[in-house]
Amino acid sequence: MQTKAEDRLLGLALAALLATIGGELLGSQALITVGVIACVLAIAALFGVMSVVLAVSVARTSELNAPDPTAIERVR
Predict the structure, then answer these.
(1) Using one digit for the tens of pLDDT, what is the confidence trace for 1-46?
(2) Nearest to 8 by CA among 40, 53, 49
(3) What torsion do the CA atoms of 27, 31, 36, 42 make, to the nearest 10 degrees?
(4) Which domain holds residue 44?
């Protein structure tokens, strides 16, 4: 499952990487610093959101999709 928050955080991380590359090409130390910090924060938040989505998904699917054994016996 993929959420809008995951998509937005991934886009933010990519934008921060592009800003870092642009800062490198322009020779701007401030832009490089901001880009790296933004990328690290976006990736950390992305892993946090992914962990929550995974935990919620596991909690929702507590039942197995196996058929009921008594129902199988009745069919035979």
Answers:
(1) 578 989 999 999 999 999 999 999 999 999 999 999 999 999 999 9
(2) 49
(3) -150
(4) 4-75
- What one-letter code names the amino acid at 13? A
Structure tokens at 64: 């197995």
Q: What is the CA radius of gyration of the chain?
A: 22
DSSP the chain: ---HHHHHHHHHHHHHHHHHHHHHHHT-HHHHHHHHHHHHHHHHHHHHHHHHHHHHHHHH--S--PPPHHHHHHH-
Number of domains comprising the chain: 1
pTM over 0.70: yes
Residue 44 CB neighbour total at 10 angstroms: 12
